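WARN no homologs supplied; continuing
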Amino acid sequence: MTKKAAILIRSGLLTGLILLSMIPCIYAGDMNAGIILADDQGRVIYAQNKEKRFVPASTLKILTSLAAIHILGEAYHFPTHYDYDATSKNLYIKGYGDPLLTSEIIEDLSQDIILKAKIKEIQHILIDPSYYANPIDIPGKGDSLNPYDAPVGALCANFNTINFQWDKDKKCFISGEPQTPLLDFFHDDIRKTNLRQGRIILSQQQSDLYPGLLLKHFLEKKIPVTGSVRLETVALKNTDPHVFQSPHELKAIVQSLLQYSNNFIANQLLLSMGAKLFGEPATLEKGVRAIQDFSHRHLNLTGLTIDEGSGLSRGNKISPHEMLKILAKFMPYHGLLKHDENEFFKTGTLTGVRTRAGYLSGKDKRLYPYIILVNEENTGYEFILTRLKNRVNQLKDK
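OK structure emitted
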């Protein structure tokens, strides 16, 4: 051992050099993966293929969430407008893309309508879904019974899904959720599944009608509804209609989106952003443009390939370096991500794609953004993550 080496060992610098020399081995260079680890000031600690674009899968939801917070506002509450025509006794409802319009909230809406509009009787409930264009086909979405294949819409209920189960005592199907009535309108579709328990995904027409059918059910507990639920694009009779606001602010909606990786919420946000910036009706093209414009103006990202907002499409492409800029901007909201020990993260999975992005909390109490974008099978994804975690644990206060 040379005298210089001995001095380095005593000073601890050799250990640091050895650790640094190991960093390029975090991942084999010939594999189709992009990786970045950086500090909280954006200084890159390790990078591989940082400028190459990969399919991000559901890690794209971080960008969608960030854009929604800036475009809609973190305290934004989705509205639903309604009006009552005393002459025809028709109730008019217009939705504006609320992704968390659940049975409980629709029941609250029914109470709001009765009290504020002072209604004693309703003939028809007219649903206006025109705030969103129809149809809207989300790239990557299929026709399965999986919740991520549910259609989007301006007025939707319960994520456009219906949970059901067989009641052995009553010998009939009942709702899988005690707060949600199982409406006769859907019994035939449930029987066609040949399942005793599960869910159905509503068609576009069913999803347009479902909120009105639920609203009718809850209204009928208090007042008579003599007509039917109909779809009709109409101008609300009152230029100043009643406004029912969702109890959920956008920040809470984003947290639900990220915690449960909800594709439906992601694309509802994308469409609503597009409509806000470029006018109704909301379209996929306007939503994509909204995210691309935000990325250009606020993140200095140009040329992003974005097909939709959830990560379902393989046409979405992003580089590790681009994702690092997104994470740097999202850092104040890192607590909205899933949290496990010293990590805040979002994962993504498609066939042949595994991705992960988020922040590692170091012993120095700093956040270290990282990105793993693997676009091939059996590529040691877990090994990469372990090595990045080990690297952060080795960092010392400066």
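The longest strand covers residues 77-85.
OK
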